[in-house]
Fold:
Amino acid sequence: MDKYDSFHADWESSEGPPNFDMEEHIRDTWSWFRDVLKSPKFVVAPMVDASELPWRVLSRRYSAELCYTPMFHAANYIKDATYRRENFPDTGDLEQGSPEFDRPLFVQFCANDINAFSTAAKMVEDRCDAVDLNLGCPQMIAKRGHYGAHMMEDWSNIRKMIEEARKVAKVRITAKIRKFEDESITLRYAKMLENAGVSLLTIHGRTRDQRGPNTGLADWQIIKKVKEALRVPVVANGNIQCLQNAIDCMEQTGVDGIMTAEGNLYNPALFFWNFTSSLPALSCIRGHVFKILHHVFQQEEYRDMRDMLAQANDFDEIGRVAEEAKRRLENLDENNEYTSPQIMDDLLMLPYWRCKPYVRPKPSETTENNSRKRNSGMIEENLKRKKHKEQKKAKYQEKMAKEVDSLRPKYEMCIKCPGNPRGLKCTFLFCKACCRKRLSMMIQIASVTEYTAKHHEKLI
Ligand SMILES: Cc1cc2nc3c(=O)[nH]c(=O)nc-3n(C[C@H](O)[C@H](O)[C@H](O)COP(=O)(O)O)c2cc1C
Ligand SMILES: [Zn+2]
Structure:
Protein backbone atom coordinates (compact mmCIF):
# COMPACT_ATOMS: atom_id res chain seq x y z
CA MET A 1 0.00 0.00 0.00
CA ASP A 2 1.28 3.47 -0.75
CA LYS A 3 -0.57 6.73 -0.35
CA TYR A 4 -1.18 6.91 -4.07
CA ASP A 5 -2.79 3.46 -4.31
CA SER A 6 -6.19 4.83 -5.13
CA PHE A 7 -4.74 6.84 -8.02
CA HIS A 8 -2.60 4.34 -9.91
CA ALA A 9 -5.41 3.09 -12.13
CA ASP A 10 -6.46 6.61 -13.04
CA TRP A 11 -2.88 7.62 -13.76
CA GLU A 12 -2.26 4.68 -16.04
CA SER A 13 -5.44 5.38 -17.97
CA SER A 14 -4.33 8.99 -18.50
CA GLU A 15 -0.90 8.16 -19.88
CA GLY A 16 -1.87 7.18 -23.41
CA PRO A 17 -0.30 8.62 -26.57
CA PRO A 18 -1.22 12.15 -27.69
CA ASN A 19 -4.32 12.72 -29.82
CA PHE A 20 -2.26 14.86 -32.21
CA ASP A 21 0.94 14.65 -34.24
CA MET A 22 3.66 15.20 -31.65
CA GLU A 23 6.45 15.95 -34.14
CA GLU A 24 4.41 18.70 -35.74
CA HIS A 25 3.37 20.01 -32.32
CA ILE A 26 6.98 20.24 -31.14
CA ARG A 27 8.03 22.04 -34.32
CA ASP A 28 5.15 24.54 -34.10
CA THR A 29 5.63 25.04 -30.40
CA TRP A 30 9.26 25.99 -30.73
CA SER A 31 8.62 28.39 -33.56
CA TRP A 32 5.86 29.98 -31.46
CA PHE A 33 8.24 30.16 -28.49
CA ARG A 34 10.95 31.77 -30.61
CA ASP A 35 9.00 33.92 -33.05
CA VAL A 36 5.93 34.98 -31.09
CA LEU A 37 7.15 34.96 -27.51
CA LYS A 38 10.72 35.87 -28.55
CA SER A 39 12.33 33.18 -26.39
CA PRO A 40 11.50 34.76 -23.03
CA LYS A 41 13.99 33.91 -20.29
CA PHE A 42 12.69 36.18 -17.56
CA VAL A 43 9.12 35.43 -16.55
CA VAL A 44 6.90 37.18 -14.00
CA ALA A 45 4.74 34.65 -12.13
CA PRO A 46 0.96 34.63 -11.91
CA MET A 47 0.19 36.39 -8.64
CA VAL A 48 -3.25 37.05 -7.20
CA ASP A 49 -3.57 40.71 -6.21
CA ALA A 50 -0.15 41.44 -7.65
CA SER A 51 0.52 40.61 -11.30
CA GLU A 52 -2.12 43.07 -12.49
CA LEU A 53 -1.70 45.16 -15.63
CA PRO A 54 0.25 48.11 -14.15
CA TRP A 55 2.65 45.76 -12.40
CA ARG A 56 3.19 43.82 -15.60
CA VAL A 57 3.93 47.00 -17.51
CA LEU A 58 6.41 48.07 -14.84
CA SER A 59 8.09 44.66 -14.76
CA ARG A 60 8.43 44.58 -18.53
CA ARG A 61 10.03 47.97 -18.44
CA TYR A 62 12.71 46.41 -16.26
CA SER A 63 13.42 43.44 -18.51
CA ALA A 64 10.65 40.95 -17.73
CA GLU A 65 9.96 39.18 -21.01
CA LEU A 66 6.79 37.22 -20.30
CA CYS A 67 4.07 37.93 -17.75
CA TYR A 68 1.11 35.98 -16.38
CA THR A 69 -2.16 37.43 -15.17
CA PRO A 70 -3.19 36.57 -11.63
CA MET A 71 -5.19 33.35 -11.38
CA PHE A 72 -8.85 33.73 -12.33
CA HIS A 73 -11.62 31.23 -11.58
CA ALA A 74 -12.77 29.78 -14.90
CA ALA A 75 -16.22 28.91 -13.56
CA ASN A 76 -16.79 32.49 -12.38
CA TYR A 77 -15.26 33.98 -15.48
CA ILE A 78 -17.62 32.27 -17.87
CA LYS A 79 -20.82 33.04 -16.01
CA ASP A 80 -20.27 36.40 -14.32
CA ALA A 81 -19.91 39.58 -16.37
CA THR A 82 -18.97 41.61 -13.29
CA TYR A 83 -16.18 39.17 -12.49
CA ARG A 84 -14.91 39.52 -16.05
CA ARG A 85 -15.07 43.30 -15.95
CA GLU A 86 -13.22 43.44 -12.65
CA ASN A 87 -10.51 40.98 -13.63
CA PHE A 88 -9.94 40.68 -17.36
CA PRO A 89 -12.55 42.66 -19.30
CA ASP A 90 -13.89 41.15 -22.50
CA THR A 91 -15.70 44.29 -23.65
CA GLY A 92 -15.09 48.02 -23.47
CA ASP A 93 -11.70 48.63 -21.95
CA LEU A 94 -9.42 46.12 -23.62
CA GLU A 95 -6.14 47.35 -22.21
CA GLN A 96 -5.32 43.99 -20.71
CA GLY A 97 -3.65 41.80 -23.27
CA SER A 98 -3.16 44.76 -25.59
CA PRO A 99 -0.57 43.95 -28.26
CA GLU A 100 0.92 47.38 -27.66
CA PHE A 101 1.91 47.06 -24.04
CA ASP A 102 0.67 43.86 -22.46
CA ARG A 103 2.30 41.06 -24.43
CA PRO A 104 3.49 38.44 -24.31
CA LEU A 105 0.85 37.48 -21.77
CA PHE A 106 -0.46 34.19 -20.40
CA VAL A 107 -3.90 34.24 -18.78
CA GLN A 108 -4.11 31.82 -15.88
CA PHE A 109 -7.26 30.02 -14.78
CA CYS A 110 -7.95 27.55 -12.06
CA ALA A 111 -10.61 25.03 -12.98
CA ASN A 112 -11.61 21.45 -12.38
CA ASP A 113 -14.39 21.31 -14.91
CA ILE A 114 -13.69 20.41 -18.52
CA ASN A 115 -16.34 22.70 -19.93
CA ALA A 116 -15.54 25.68 -17.69
CA PHE A 117 -11.85 25.62 -18.58
CA SER A 118 -12.32 25.32 -22.33
CA THR A 119 -15.07 27.97 -22.39
CA ALA A 120 -12.95 30.40 -20.37
CA ALA A 121 -9.98 29.75 -22.67
CA LYS A 122 -12.17 30.47 -25.68
CA MET A 123 -13.32 33.76 -24.15
CA VAL A 124 -9.78 35.13 -23.80
CA GLU A 125 -8.20 33.46 -26.84
CA ASP A 126 -7.68 36.73 -28.73
CA ARG A 127 -6.19 38.68 -25.86
CA CYS A 128 -3.28 36.53 -24.77
CA ASP A 129 -0.55 34.25 -26.05
CA ALA A 130 -1.56 31.23 -23.98
CA VAL A 131 -4.02 30.08 -21.36
CA ASP A 132 -2.39 28.51 -18.34
CA LEU A 133 -3.99 25.90 -16.11
CA ASN A 134 -3.14 26.46 -12.45
CA LEU A 135 -2.12 23.13 -10.94
CA GLY A 136 0.10 24.66 -8.28
CA CYS A 137 -2.04 26.62 -5.84
CA PRO A 138 -1.58 24.93 -2.43
CA GLN A 139 -3.90 27.10 -0.37
CA MET A 140 -6.80 25.95 1.79
CA ILE A 141 -9.26 27.74 -0.44
CA ALA A 142 -8.00 25.64 -3.35
CA LYS A 143 -8.42 22.54 -1.23
CA ARG A 144 -12.05 23.43 -0.56
CA GLY A 145 -12.67 24.23 -4.22
CA HIS A 146 -10.60 21.22 -5.32
CA TYR A 147 -8.38 23.01 -7.79
CA GLY A 148 -4.73 24.04 -8.14
CA ALA A 149 -2.29 21.69 -6.44
CA HIS A 150 -5.19 19.95 -4.71
CA MET A 151 -6.16 18.29 -7.97
CA MET A 152 -2.65 17.26 -8.97
CA GLU A 153 -3.59 13.61 -8.51
CA ASP A 154 -6.58 13.80 -10.88
CA TRP A 155 -4.60 13.11 -14.01
CA SER A 156 -7.32 11.88 -16.32
CA ASN A 157 -9.51 14.89 -15.55
CA ILE A 158 -6.55 17.24 -16.09
CA ARG A 159 -5.76 15.55 -19.36
CA LYS A 160 -9.34 15.88 -20.59
CA MET A 161 -9.43 19.55 -19.60
CA ILE A 162 -6.32 20.30 -21.62
CA GLU A 163 -7.42 18.27 -24.63
CA GLU A 164 -10.86 19.88 -24.69
CA ALA A 165 -9.46 23.41 -24.34
CA ARG A 166 -7.08 22.74 -27.22
CA LYS A 167 -10.00 21.57 -29.32
CA VAL A 168 -12.35 24.44 -28.44
CA ALA A 169 -10.07 27.48 -28.20
CA LYS A 170 -7.60 28.69 -30.80
CA VAL A 171 -5.00 29.53 -28.19
CA ARG A 172 -2.11 27.57 -26.78
CA ILE A 173 -2.57 25.81 -23.46
CA THR A 174 0.14 25.66 -20.80
CA ALA A 175 0.29 24.46 -17.20
CA LYS A 176 2.02 25.40 -13.97
CA ILE A 177 2.67 22.51 -11.62
CA ARG A 178 4.34 21.64 -8.35
CA LYS A 179 6.52 18.59 -7.90
CA PHE A 180 5.46 15.37 -6.21
CA GLU A 181 7.68 14.08 -3.42
CA ASP A 182 8.48 11.15 -5.65
CA GLU A 183 10.71 11.96 -8.59
CA SER A 184 9.40 9.27 -10.92
CA ILE A 185 5.79 10.34 -10.34
CA THR A 186 6.74 13.94 -11.07
CA LEU A 187 8.32 12.88 -14.36
CA ARG A 188 5.31 10.78 -15.36
CA TYR A 189 3.03 13.71 -14.48
CA ALA A 190 5.04 16.13 -16.62
CA LYS A 191 5.10 13.69 -19.53
CA MET A 192 1.34 13.14 -19.24
CA LEU A 193 0.82 16.92 -19.50
CA GLU A 194 3.03 17.07 -22.58
CA ASN A 195 1.03 14.26 -24.18
CA ALA A 196 -2.17 16.11 -23.29
CA GLY A 197 -0.86 18.96 -25.45
CA VAL A 198 0.63 21.73 -23.30
CA SER A 199 2.91 24.09 -25.21
CA LEU A 200 4.99 25.03 -22.18
CA LEU A 201 5.30 23.70 -18.67
CA THR A 202 6.30 25.69 -15.61
CA ILE A 203 7.47 23.63 -12.69
CA HIS A 204 7.70 25.00 -9.19
CA GLY A 205 10.31 22.90 -7.39
CA ARG A 206 8.29 22.50 -4.21
CA THR A 207 5.63 20.01 -3.12
CA ARG A 208 2.07 20.97 -2.26
CA ASP A 209 2.92 20.86 1.45
CA GLN A 210 5.87 23.21 1.11
CA ARG A 211 4.04 26.41 1.84
CA GLY A 212 3.81 29.01 4.60
CA PRO A 213 6.36 28.21 7.31
CA ASN A 214 7.23 24.94 5.51
CA THR A 215 8.11 26.63 2.25
CA GLY A 216 11.81 25.78 2.34
CA LEU A 217 14.09 25.80 -0.66
CA ALA A 218 12.90 24.81 -4.11
CA ASP A 219 14.40 21.70 -5.66
CA TRP A 220 16.22 22.57 -8.89
CA GLN A 221 17.33 18.95 -9.38
CA ILE A 222 13.81 17.80 -10.25
CA ILE A 223 13.39 20.83 -12.52
CA LYS A 224 16.50 19.73 -14.41
CA LYS A 225 15.10 16.21 -14.80
CA VAL A 226 11.75 17.50 -16.05
CA LYS A 227 13.53 19.71 -18.56
CA GLU A 228 15.50 16.70 -19.80
CA ALA A 229 12.38 14.56 -20.06
CA LEU A 230 10.21 16.99 -22.01
CA ARG A 231 10.39 18.33 -25.54
CA VAL A 232 8.26 21.46 -25.04
CA PRO A 233 9.80 24.56 -23.37
CA VAL A 234 10.17 24.30 -19.60
CA VAL A 235 10.23 27.21 -17.15
CA ALA A 236 11.72 26.89 -13.66
CA ASN A 237 10.13 28.47 -10.59
CA GLY A 238 11.25 28.80 -6.98
CA ASN A 239 14.19 30.42 -5.16
CA ILE A 240 14.93 33.08 -7.70
CA GLN A 241 15.52 36.30 -5.82
CA CYS A 242 18.24 38.01 -7.83
CA LEU A 243 19.77 38.02 -11.27
CA GLN A 244 22.56 35.69 -10.17
CA ASN A 245 19.96 33.14 -8.95
CA ALA A 246 18.34 33.36 -12.37
CA ILE A 247 21.62 32.72 -14.15
CA ASP A 248 22.56 29.90 -11.75
CA CYS A 249 19.17 28.26 -12.18
CA MET A 250 19.40 28.32 -15.97
CA GLU A 251 22.92 26.93 -15.81
CA GLN A 252 22.08 24.18 -13.37
CA THR A 253 18.77 23.06 -14.86
CA GLY A 254 19.07 23.92 -18.55
CA VAL A 255 15.52 25.33 -18.55
CA ASP A 256 14.31 27.72 -21.21
CA GLY A 257 13.20 30.42 -18.79
CA ILE A 258 12.94 31.20 -15.13
CA MET A 259 9.91 32.54 -13.29
CA THR A 260 9.86 34.60 -10.14
CA ALA A 261 7.03 35.71 -7.87
CA GLU A 262 8.26 37.06 -4.55
CA GLY A 263 11.61 38.17 -5.91
CA ASN A 264 9.81 40.25 -8.52
CA LEU A 265 7.45 41.79 -5.96
CA TYR A 266 10.29 43.01 -3.80
CA ASN A 267 12.30 44.14 -6.77
CA PRO A 268 10.58 44.49 -10.13
CA ALA A 269 13.98 45.36 -11.58
CA LEU A 270 15.33 41.97 -10.50
CA PHE A 271 16.28 41.06 -14.04
CA PHE A 272 17.78 44.45 -14.70
CA TRP A 273 21.50 44.84 -14.55
CA ASN A 274 23.08 47.20 -12.06
CA PHE A 275 21.52 50.55 -12.72
CA THR A 276 24.13 52.69 -11.00
CA SER A 277 26.87 51.43 -13.30
CA SER A 278 25.46 53.43 -16.16
CA LEU A 279 24.02 56.58 -14.66
CA PRO A 280 23.19 59.40 -17.03
CA ALA A 281 25.27 62.58 -16.94
CA LEU A 282 25.21 64.52 -13.69
CA SER A 283 23.61 67.49 -15.42
CA CYS A 284 20.66 65.30 -16.46
CA ILE A 285 20.10 64.10 -12.92
CA ARG A 286 20.44 67.62 -11.59
CA GLY A 287 17.92 68.80 -14.19
CA HIS A 288 15.37 66.24 -13.04
CA VAL A 289 15.77 67.22 -9.39
CA PHE A 290 15.47 70.92 -10.20
CA LYS A 291 12.20 70.33 -12.02
CA ILE A 292 10.72 68.05 -9.40
CA LEU A 293 11.58 70.51 -6.63
CA HIS A 294 10.82 73.63 -8.64
CA HIS A 295 7.91 74.81 -6.51
CA VAL A 296 9.80 74.08 -3.32
CA PHE A 297 12.76 76.13 -4.48
CA GLN A 298 10.47 79.11 -5.03
CA GLN A 299 10.14 79.31 -1.24
CA GLU A 300 12.74 81.48 0.43
CA GLU A 301 13.33 78.97 3.24
CA TYR A 302 14.58 76.34 0.77
CA ARG A 303 17.16 78.57 -0.91
CA ASP A 304 19.95 76.65 0.83
CA MET A 305 18.81 73.40 -0.76
CA ARG A 306 18.63 75.03 -4.15
CA ASP A 307 22.21 76.24 -3.81
CA MET A 308 23.31 72.84 -2.57
CA LEU A 309 21.88 71.27 -5.70
CA ALA A 310 23.37 73.89 -8.00
CA GLN A 311 26.80 73.22 -6.52
CA ALA A 312 26.53 69.45 -6.25
CA ASN A 313 29.52 67.81 -7.90
CA ASP A 314 28.68 64.16 -7.81
CA PHE A 315 25.83 61.72 -7.50
CA ASP A 316 26.14 61.45 -3.71
CA GLU A 317 25.83 65.20 -3.25
CA ILE A 318 22.66 65.22 -5.33
CA GLY A 319 21.48 62.29 -3.25
CA ARG A 320 21.97 64.39 -0.12
CA VAL A 321 19.74 67.13 -1.55
CA ALA A 322 17.05 64.52 -2.16
CA GLU A 323 17.41 63.22 1.39
CA GLU A 324 17.29 66.73 2.80
CA ALA A 325 14.16 67.45 0.75
CA LYS A 326 12.56 64.29 2.02
CA ARG A 327 13.41 65.14 5.63
CA ARG A 328 12.03 68.67 5.43
CA LEU A 329 8.99 68.05 3.24
CA GLU A 330 7.84 64.65 4.40
CA ASN A 331 5.72 65.81 7.30
CA LEU A 332 4.17 68.88 5.73
CA ASP A 333 1.19 66.99 4.38
CA GLU A 334 -0.99 66.31 7.38
CA ASN A 335 -3.68 64.59 5.36
CA ASN A 336 -1.27 62.24 3.65
CA GLU A 337 -3.19 62.96 0.49
CA TYR A 338 -1.05 61.75 -2.37
CA THR A 339 -3.39 61.27 -5.28
CA SER A 340 -2.76 63.57 -8.20
CA PRO A 341 -5.78 65.59 -9.41
CA GLN A 342 -6.62 65.16 -13.06
CA ILE A 343 -7.50 68.69 -14.05
CA MET A 344 -5.15 71.61 -14.29
CA ASP A 345 -6.95 73.99 -11.93
CA ASP A 346 -6.94 71.44 -9.12
CA LEU A 347 -3.32 70.58 -9.78
CA LEU A 348 -2.27 74.20 -9.56
CA MET A 349 -4.06 74.56 -6.23
CA LEU A 350 -1.75 71.99 -4.66
CA PRO A 351 0.70 73.26 -2.04
CA TYR A 352 4.30 73.81 -3.07
CA TRP A 353 5.56 70.52 -1.65
CA ARG A 354 3.45 68.50 -4.06
CA CYS A 355 4.52 67.78 -7.63
CA LYS A 356 2.60 69.97 -10.04
CA PRO A 357 3.06 71.59 -13.43
CA TYR A 358 4.98 74.74 -14.04
CA VAL A 359 3.02 77.41 -15.89
CA ARG A 360 5.03 80.11 -17.61
CA PRO A 361 3.92 83.67 -16.75
CA LYS A 362 2.20 85.59 -19.56
CA PRO A 363 4.34 88.24 -21.27
CA SER A 364 3.52 91.62 -19.67
CA GLU A 365 0.88 93.75 -21.37
CA THR A 366 1.98 96.27 -23.96
CA THR A 367 3.46 99.41 -22.48
CA GLU A 368 2.76 101.62 -25.51
CA ASN A 369 0.16 103.77 -23.78
CA ASN A 370 2.48 104.67 -20.97
CA SER A 371 5.18 105.85 -23.28
CA ARG A 372 2.99 108.38 -25.08
CA LYS A 373 4.78 111.69 -25.11
CA ARG A 374 3.30 115.14 -25.84
CA ASN A 375 6.30 116.53 -27.64
CA SER A 376 6.16 115.56 -31.34
CA GLY A 377 9.95 115.66 -31.75
CA MET A 378 10.21 113.38 -28.79
CA ILE A 379 7.64 111.09 -30.39
CA GLU A 380 9.73 110.69 -33.52
CA GLU A 381 12.84 110.02 -31.50
CA ASN A 382 10.97 107.54 -29.37
CA LEU A 383 9.54 105.70 -32.36
CA LYS A 384 13.01 105.29 -33.80
CA ARG A 385 14.39 104.02 -30.52
CA LYS A 386 11.44 101.71 -30.11
CA LYS A 387 11.89 100.25 -33.58
CA HIS A 388 15.55 99.65 -32.92
CA LYS A 389 14.72 98.02 -29.62
CA GLU A 390 12.13 95.77 -31.22
CA GLN A 391 14.55 94.66 -33.90
CA LYS A 392 17.09 93.84 -31.25
CA LYS A 393 14.49 91.98 -29.26
CA ALA A 394 13.33 89.97 -32.29
CA LYS A 395 16.90 89.02 -33.08
CA TYR A 396 17.49 87.95 -29.49
CA GLN A 397 14.26 85.96 -29.40
CA GLU A 398 15.18 84.20 -32.61
CA LYS A 399 18.55 83.26 -31.20
CA MET A 400 17.02 82.01 -27.96
CA ALA A 401 14.37 80.04 -29.80
CA LYS A 402 17.10 78.31 -31.77
CA GLU A 403 19.00 77.53 -28.62
CA VAL A 404 15.95 76.19 -26.82
CA ASP A 405 15.10 74.17 -29.89
CA SER A 406 18.54 72.61 -29.94
CA LEU A 407 18.12 71.63 -26.30
CA ARG A 408 14.74 70.07 -26.78
CA PRO A 409 14.94 66.32 -27.41
CA LYS A 410 13.90 65.53 -30.96
CA TYR A 411 13.17 61.91 -30.17
CA GLU A 412 11.78 59.96 -27.29
CA MET A 413 14.61 59.17 -24.94
CA CYS A 414 16.05 55.85 -23.81
CA ILE A 415 14.53 54.93 -20.44
CA LYS A 416 17.82 53.52 -19.23
CA CYS A 417 20.22 56.31 -20.08
CA PRO A 418 18.02 59.29 -20.85
CA GLY A 419 20.84 60.93 -22.82
CA ASN A 420 20.21 58.92 -26.00
CA PRO A 421 17.23 58.65 -28.33
CA ARG A 422 15.26 55.42 -28.26
CA GLY A 423 15.90 52.79 -30.87
CA LEU A 424 12.93 52.30 -33.15
CA LYS A 425 12.80 48.56 -32.70
CA CYS A 426 13.72 48.10 -29.03
CA THR A 427 10.64 46.89 -27.14
CA PHE A 428 12.35 47.85 -23.90
CA LEU A 429 12.40 51.50 -24.94
CA PHE A 430 16.21 51.49 -24.87
CA CYS A 431 18.64 53.35 -27.08
CA LYS A 432 20.75 51.38 -29.52
CA ALA A 433 23.69 51.09 -27.11
CA CYS A 434 21.61 49.92 -24.16
CA CYS A 435 19.64 47.56 -26.36
CA ARG A 436 22.86 46.04 -27.69
CA LYS A 437 24.17 45.67 -24.13
CA ARG A 438 21.02 43.91 -23.04
CA LEU A 439 21.14 41.65 -26.07
CA SER A 440 24.73 40.66 -25.43
CA MET A 441 23.85 39.76 -21.86
CA MET A 442 21.01 37.59 -23.11
CA ILE A 443 23.31 35.91 -25.62
CA GLN A 444 25.78 35.25 -22.85
CA ILE A 445 23.09 33.64 -20.73
CA ALA A 446 21.84 31.72 -23.74
CA SER A 447 25.29 30.41 -24.56
CA VAL A 448 25.91 29.34 -20.97
CA THR A 449 22.62 27.46 -21.03
CA GLU A 450 23.45 25.91 -24.37
CA TYR A 451 26.88 24.99 -23.11
CA THR A 452 25.51 23.19 -20.06
CA ALA A 453 22.95 21.42 -22.19
CA LYS A 454 25.66 20.24 -24.62
CA HIS A 455 27.97 19.35 -21.79
CA HIS A 456 25.21 17.28 -20.32
CA GLU A 457 24.57 15.49 -23.60
CA LYS A 458 28.17 14.40 -23.58
CA LEU A 459 27.83 13.01 -20.09
CA ILE A 460 24.86 10.77 -20.86
C1 LIG B 1 1.38 37.21 -3.80
C2 LIG B 1 1.44 35.90 -4.51
C3 LIG B 1 0.38 35.51 -5.30
C4 LIG B 1 0.42 34.31 -6.00
N1 LIG B 1 -0.61 33.98 -6.83
C5 LIG B 1 -0.48 32.90 -7.66
C6 LIG B 1 -1.42 32.64 -8.68
O1 LIG B 1 -2.39 33.38 -8.87
N2 LIG B 1 -1.23 31.55 -9.48
C7 LIG B 1 -0.15 30.72 -9.32
O2 LIG B 1 -0.02 29.76 -10.09
N3 LIG B 1 0.75 30.95 -8.37
C8 LIG B 1 0.63 32.03 -7.54
N4 LIG B 1 1.60 32.30 -6.62
C9 LIG B 1 2.76 31.41 -6.54
C10 LIG B 1 3.88 31.91 -7.43
O3 LIG B 1 3.47 32.00 -8.78
C11 LIG B 1 5.13 31.04 -7.34
O4 LIG B 1 4.84 29.77 -7.85
C12 LIG B 1 5.64 30.88 -5.92
O5 LIG B 1 5.54 32.09 -5.20
C13 LIG B 1 7.10 30.43 -5.92
O6 LIG B 1 7.92 31.34 -6.60
P1 LIG B 1 8.91 32.33 -5.83
O7 LIG B 1 9.85 31.47 -5.03
O8 LIG B 1 9.61 33.09 -6.91
O9 LIG B 1 8.07 33.21 -4.96
C14 LIG B 1 1.56 33.47 -5.89
C15 LIG B 1 2.61 33.87 -5.08
C16 LIG B 1 2.58 35.06 -4.40
C17 LIG B 1 3.76 35.47 -3.56
ZN1 LIG C 1 20.32 54.05 -23.41
Remarks:
- Residues 45-48, 50, 70-71, 108, 134, 136-137, 176, 204, 237-240, 260-263 surround flavin mononucleotide (ligand 1) (CB under 6 Å).
- Residues 5-266 form a domain with the TIM Barrel fold (CATH 3.20.20.70).
